[in-house]
From TrEMBL:
Top-level taxon: Eukaryota
InterPro entries in the record: Mannosyltransferase_CMT1
A Pfam family reported for this protein in Swiss-Prot or TrEMBL: CAP59_mtransfer
PANTHER family tied to this protein: CHROMOSOME 8, WHOLE GENOME SHOTGUN SEQUENCE, EXPORT PROTEIN (CAP59), PUTATIVE (AFU_ORTHOLOGUE AFUA_7G05020)-RELATED
Protein name per its UniProtKB record: Polysaccharide export protein
Length: 413
């Protein structure tokens, strides 16, 4: 028999005891469910990562014609240790007639020029067409020039050269041969933009096969100090938000995050991240797609956006074909970083997956990008009030920063 309370006070204590007991059992049940779900999810993700083999699928992409574009500044070490050899192997894999290499080097003070001359000689032996420009114009020369477009008054009470217009101009110089070749009737299928990263031929062919080859842009993931990914300036999730954390699984957006958990192509609004493949059509159209910065007048509002994000905002194919980050393709800015994220199973260890999943949840629950976005939107709105005929389609790229060129790199002001 179940004992019954013999007085009102004991009845109240009995009711409270039952209520707290039910709550305790409910909390215990929720805890057990959470732990069980986490274990299943972690084991599933780790199993997929451990059994996933990067397959370059070379036969289907070997016939593709690649225009390879790259900029270099003080990159001698990575060029000589990895990059030059990887480009040579890439040219061999696709065939010398299917590759054009366009490189612009800008005033390095190490022996980057010497390393690129070695690449030039290696490509020449293969019969690969190329344009490797070695410029003696340094950052010091750039910031000593007479102010023109791209220069603004900064909080340091002087007129300074913005970093992004400078970078956009150099990136566009790597595309000049594409325009000239197009006028000659020489065509390509994809443009492959390469940063100063460690990569392999399989990395490239896997990237080209992202989403079965249907995309406006496909990007790798890049690492300098794993487990943190590197290019936070250009990467935006499917909602146009910055990452919620710099470690996997990175994203606030459910669409981006769920695709990443499945190690599938991740829909994003923008990415760059070390290596990018894009169809060539927008770059050779009657109004050719080119890199740009936001206007100087908008930058005066203490806003800036990466040229590598704005290119996706301007690309007419972005809405039609989508921009994707491919988690199967991971490149590194040094050999140690590359090795740390290969193979996939080592990159996503059981411990890292279990902790990172919950860290991502708590960050999404407890933080919001709303206040940062409000600052940007208000500054854009004030700018548009004064410049009614101007619009900025890449508002999701903008952050509350001002970046200028200095003699040894760049600086926030």
């Amino acid at each position: 028999m179940v004992p019954t309370p013999s007085s009102p006070s004991s009845f109240l204590r009995y009711g409270l005891s039952r209520r707290f007991g039910l709550r305790r059992r409910l909390l215990q049940g929720l805890f057990i469910c959470s732990v069980t779900w986490t274990i299943v999810e972690v084991l599933y993700i780790h199993h997929r990562a451990s059994t996933m083999v990067q397959v370059g699928n070379r036969p289907s992409h070997q016939s593709e014609r690649l225009f390879i574009a790259s900029m270099h500044w003080n990159n001698e070490a990575i060029l000589r240790s990895h990059w030059n050899d990887a480009v040579i192997e890439l040219a061999k894999a696709f065939g010398p007639d299917n590759v054009f290499v366009s490189v612009f080097e800008s005033g390095s003070w190490d022996d980057t020029k010497g390393a690129l001359r070695e690449l030039d000689a290696g490509l020449d032996r293969l019969g690969v067409r190329r344009n490797i420009t070695l410029s003696d114009t340094t950052h010091e020369d750039e910031i000593s020039a007479r102010p023109r477009e791209g220069w603004i008054d900064t909080p340091r009470h002087k007129k300074e050269l913005r970093r992004i217009p400078y970078l956009a101009r150099l990136r566009n110089l790597t595309l000049q041969p594409l325009e000239e070749l197009s006028q000659q009737g020489i065509t390509f299928d994809k443009i492959l933009f390469l940063n100063d990263v460690v990569f392999t031929v399989d990395d490239v062919t896997t990237l080209l096969g992202t989403n079965d080859g249907f995309y406006a842009a496909a990007c790798s993931l890049d690492f300098s100090k794993p487990p943190l990914y590197y290019d936070t300036f250009a990467l935006r999730d499917s909602n146009g938000d910055e990452q919620v954390m710099q470690k996997w699984p990175y994203f606030r957006s459910a669409a981006s995050r769920n695709a990443l958990l499945a190690l599938s192509p991740v829909p994003v609004k923008s990415c760059w991240n070390g290596m990018v493949a894009m169809p060539v059509e927008p770059f050779v159209s009657t109004t050719p797609l080119r890199f740009r910065a936001i206007s100087d007048s908008l930058a005066l509002s203490h806003l800036e956006g990466s040229e590598c994000c704005l290119i996706h905002a301007d690309n007419p194919l972005s809405q039609q074909q989508g921009v994707y980050l491919n988690p199967k393709v991971r490149v590194g800015y040094n050999p140690a970083a590359y090795e740390a994220v290969h193979p996939t199973g080592a990159w996503l260890s059981l411990q890292h997956v279990s902790l990172a999943l919950w860290e991502n949840r708590f960050r999404r629950w407890l933080t919001t990008p709303l206040f940062k976005k409000l600052v940007v939107r208000r500054r854009i709105a004030r700018w548009q009030d004064d410049h009614g005929d101007e619009r900025e389609p890449g508002d999701f790229c903008l952050i509350n920063e001002m970046q200028v060129l200095v003699f040894n790199g760049w600086a926030h002001v």
